[in-house]
Specification:
Elements: H1 5-12, H2 17-25, E1 30-33, H3 40-53, E2 60-64, H4 69-78, E3 81-84, H5 90-95, E4 101-104, H6 116-133, E5 138-144, E6 151-152, H7 170-189, E7 192-198, E8 201-202, H8 208-217, E9 222-223, E10 228-229, E11 232-233, H9 234-243, E12 253-257, E13 263-264, H10 265-275, E14 282-283, E15 289-290, H11 296-302, H12 309-321
Length: about 350
């Protein structure tokens, strides 16, 4: 089990052998942009640990506004350099060290319905500032499986990298806009880029499994309109993101990033409820479509995720049952109209 926040961070930042191997082969220092969010701090620590395990003395810099100063202090204490600033500001972006390896993590999703212009500015304007400054870098840019749009729920289905995007709603459209900015600069200037289309990273404080477990724990019904989802342990997603640095190309490469197969929400909720000795109530019926992502390609390149669905269910149920801290940031996985 994962006992506390320190234990959680240890698990999240433990590098895979693949991540260590990649960072042993790649040359140069690494810059993480938008590193103050849910995934950034643990990715920074993992990249540092992987570099050290590979015997590489690499400068690693995390850039963010760091609205929580404790996050910046914790990263500094771990050996990560921290630069605080606003990536919306062109002069700030231009002041950043031009390192050869870049992971771009900035994005906005929730709040799109009330402030769509800010979502578009975050997801489309900032990438072009970054691309202009880091034209000669390898860039791994986080994107979303939402750009594909829903697919029919049938055994074995899931969007693959070659599928034509059909985004639903302004968030999904702006996420595709973010990709288009990176693609444009990759084509225009030869910038080496990998776009990572992520479907639902999860750890003990947030994610689709935490959403389900919290609703069960609080005696709230589960909406089955979205009957199937994908998810991946955040530590495995971080490791894949590091590995994707060696997959950068011009024109840009696209890689899906989630766990193997799809997850039936009804079955998972029943397992979580049984583990927590709770009852579960469902409302609605499983819809004919869902956002589903086939990540076979990245699994073939760098191996299956280390943490299985069975393990995630066990860890999540235990954490929620013990009232472990959560971020109180629901994924809204049940949303089907693209409005976030």
């Amino acid at each position: 089990m994962i006992h506390d926040l320190n234990d959680l961070e240890e698990h999240l930042s433990q590098p895979t052998e693949a991540a260590i191997d990649v960072l042993s082969r790649l040359e140069g220092d690494l810059l993480l942009l938008g590193a103050g969010g849910k995934m950034g701090p643990s990715l920074a620590r993992m990249a540092l640990r992987a570099s050290r395990s590979a015997g590489v003395d690499r400068r690693l810099i995390a850039v963010s506004r760091f609205s929580d100063p404790a996050t910046a202090e914790s990263l500094s204490g771990a050996g990560v350099e921290v630069i605080r600033g606003d990536l919306f500001e062109p002069d700030f972006v231009a002041s950043l060290p031009n390192l050869p390896l870049v992971v771009y993590m900035l994005g906005m999703k929730f709040g799109t319905s009330t402030n769509p212009s800010l979502t578009w500015a975050t997801n489309v304007v900032v990438p072009q500032l970054v691309c202009r400054h880091f034209q000669s870098s390898r860039i791994v840019a986080f994107s979303s499986g939402n750009v594909y749009g829903p697919v029919a729920v049938e055994p074995g289905t899931g969007s693959v990298e070659m599928d034509v995007p059909h985004p639903v709603g302004e968030y999904s459209m702006s996420a595709l806009g973010r990709e288009r900015m990176f693609e444009y600069f990759s084509q225009a200037h030869g910038t080496q880029v990998t776009l990572l289309r992520l479907n639902y990273a999860t750890e003990m404080r947030y994610g689709v499994l935490v959403d389900m477990a919290m609703q069960i724990h609080r005696g709230r019904p589960i909406d089955l309109t979205t009957g199937f989802v994908n998810t991946i342990w955040q530590g495995d997603a971080n490791a894949y993101a590091i590995c994707a640095l060696e997959q950068t190309t011009s024109p840009a490469t696209v890689l899906n990033m989630t766990g193997p197969g799809r997850i039936g929400c009804r079955a998972v909720c029943e397992r979580l409820a049984a583990r927590m000795n709770r009852s579960v109530e469902f409302v609605g019926e499983e819809g004919p479509t869902a956002l589903l992502n086939d990540s076979s390609k990245i699994h073939e390149l760098y191996g299956q995720p280390r943490v299985s669905l069975d393990q995630l269910i066990e860890w999540t149920a235990d954490w929620v049952q013990r009232d472990g801290p959560t971020l109180e940031k629901p994924t809204h996985f049940e949303v089907t109209d693209g409005k976030f």
